[in-house]
Amino acid sequence: MLEIILFSLLNGILYGLLLFMLSSGLTLIFSMMGVLNFAHASFYMLGAYFAYTLGMHTGFWPALILAPILVGVVGSLVERFGLRRVHANGHVAELLFTFGLAYVIDELVQLTWGTVAVPYREPDYLREPLFTLFGTDYSIFRGVVILISILMFIALWYLLKKTRVGMMIRAALTHGAMVGHLGHNVPRLFMLVFGFGCALAGLAGVIGGPLLATEPGMAATLGPIVFVVVVVGGMGSLPGAFYASLLIGLLQTFFVAIDASVADILGIFGLQIDPYGEVARITLANLAPMTPFILLVLMLIFRPRGLMGELEP
Amino acid sequence: MLEVKDLHAYYGKSHILNGVNFHLEEGEVVSLLGRNGVGRSTTVKSIMGEVPPQGSIRFRGKEIAGLPSHAIARRGLGYVPEDRDIFPTLTVRQNLELGIKNPRKPGKWKVQQMLDMFPNLARRADSPAGVLSGGEKQMLTMCRTLMGDPELMMIDEPTEGLAPLIVKQIGELISDIANAGVSILLVEQKLSIAMDISHRVLVMGHGQIVFEGTPEELRADDAIRKEWLEV
Ligand SMILES: Nc1ncnc2c1ncn2[C@@H]1O[C@H](COP(=O)(O)OP(=O)(O)OP(=O)(O)O)[C@@H](O)[C@H]1O
Ligand SMILES: [Mg+2]
Q1: Residue A223 lies in a domain
Q2: For residue A77, what pLDDT is reported?
Q3: Total number of domains constituting chain B
Q4: In this structure, is residue A310 part of a structural domain?
Q5: CATH number of the domain bearing residue B208
Q6: What is the mean pLDDT of residues B158-167?
Q7: A181 contacts on B by Cβ (under 8 Å)
Q8: Mean pLDDT over residues B123-140, rounded?
Q9: Which residues of chain A have pLDDT under 50?
Q10: What value does the mean pLDDT take over residues B137-166?
Q11: Has residue A274 been placed in a domain?
Q12: pTM for the model
């Protein structure tokens, strides 16, 4: 039991950090530019595929750095030559643009890398155990991922709180036009933030690819969950996105790990139902993929502004 | 220095500016007067590129109509909007620092100098600017714009909703800025201030300039005051 709790905790945190790497970029882009980027998870997928292909030439570690940069460049170009023009026609047009973009990227990925998963993996030595508890191994790679995520967030915090560009970004979050009136190039700032957000998604893909799977469906699997994170955390709130990422990461992991059925749970409360009925046999693990969406629905009913949001979505 | 010719501006389909013409010379303080809603803010906003302008706007002989606002600011125009627009989550000091256009080429105004001038700002230098009072916010936005070394500063209703004592302080700051050689286009509702510190006044009505002259001339012209200013 302790073993399950401990490992679920570790894996839940890991998954949560990965979610935050995606949701932080999405949140920054949304609160600064007002664009809900439907293609965000597609940039995550691009990260994984880029790292796979680059890695065949450069090895794992250089690809880990190069792939997110490349995704960031692609993101910046999309902003500069796509979104910026569409922007003139309002938010609905932007939304439709990113929606279309997601499909375009998905199709391009399938054309380039095929419709089945590619064998993108961490090097063998990273699969060795970092430590062994109760006879279960925790791989070095998982430790590395947690470390990279934490370093990433320290860097993000430093960028936003301590640098001049970060100051401009925080100022533009509330008063974009005024930042321009002071002589700062706001369109260029938007391009940088969009590219940076995409690079973060790309990094999530680079480390998420080997952990989950590098396949054409990976954007569609994670995309909706990232949106749930952003809404549950409160649209536009970075701390909110952080807590919601960890919450959903842990919730999903624990549900997968708990080997109990609806009948068992009801049993705890002294309720008996036919243990062989359809409903009774649903296990919590079956429900795991649903938990983010249940949370979303409950959140929208009972606290529409999210954990830490100021406005209702 | 600034020459506006046949300026038109629209919000959607409503035609707000209907051929605005005026000019402003180096070192001048000019006030733009008029009743609520006649388009004074819109004039300033279209010069700054926040509202798309139609017509000609020349600054130091070069056309600036149609440029993005950051490019206009870099030509030497400063803008203090009527809703003040301080950055509430940044500290007072950071607000001032963002006024600097290029940190490698600092201008003649220094952050410390601003803080020395306004003890109320100095006391809150490291607090989020959102906690400042209305008057302090107004001081902060004016100082922040000064940090960018503008040659012409457009200030939109700086005294709106403020107590008389603070109004007086703001009047003094505007005089100080003018004495430092910065030209000023001031949008004001309070005639007394505008008349005191301006070299020339412009009166707006129905999206056009309907009077141009010295404060004395405006004082002498009862008809204009009755028709376009008094409520
Ligand atoms: N964003 C906007 N959208 C539509 N109409 C606007 C907008 N801003 C201003 N207007 C309208 O344009 C006209 C001129 O507005 P403007 O802000 O220039 O007036 P003003 O002379 O500065 O007066 P005041 O500041 O006292 O309201 C007004 O009738 C106003 O209702
Ligand atoms: Mg106004």
Answers
A1: no
A2: 97
A3: 1
A4: no
A5: 3.40.50.300
A6: 90
A7: 48, 50, 69-70, 73, 79, 81, 145
A8: 94
A9: 312-313
A10: 94
A11: no
A12: 0.88
Say yes or no to pLDDT of B28 above 70. Answer: yes
Which residue range forms the structural domain that includes residue A168?
A: 2-214
In a domain, A80, yes or no: yes
- For residue A171, which residues of chain B lie inside 8 Å, CB to CB? 87, 89-90, 98
Number of domains in chain A: 1
Domain that holds residue B57: 2-228
Percentage above 70 pLDDT, chain B:
100
Q: Which residues 134-193 of A have a C-beta within 8 angstroms of B?
A: 164, 167-168, 170-171, 173-175, 177-187
Q: Which of B41, B45, B70 to mutate to test the interface with A (most CBs of A within 10 A)?
A: B70
Ligand 1 contact, B111 CB (< 6 A): no
B179 lines ligand 1 (CB under 6 A): no
Please give the number of the atom of ligand 1 that sits closest to the Cα of B36. Answer: 26
pLDDT digits (tens, 9 = 90+) for A159-169: 999 999 999 99
Question: Could you write out the DSSP letters of every residue in chain B?
Answer: -EEEEEEEEEETTEEEEEEEEEEE-TT-EEEEE--TTSSHHHHHHHHHTSS--EEEEEETTEE-TTS-HHHHHHTTEEEE-TT----TTSBHHHHHHHH-S-TTS--S--HHHHHHH-HHHHHTTTSBGGGS-HHHHHHHHHHHHHTT--SEEEEE-TTTT--HHHHHHHHHHHHHHHHTT-EEEEE-S-HHHHHHH-SEEEEEETTEEEEEE-HHHHHH-HHHIIIII--
Question: Is it the case that residue B152 has pLDDT exceeding 90?
Answer: yes
**Which chain B residue lies closest to A180 (C-alpha atoms)?**
B70
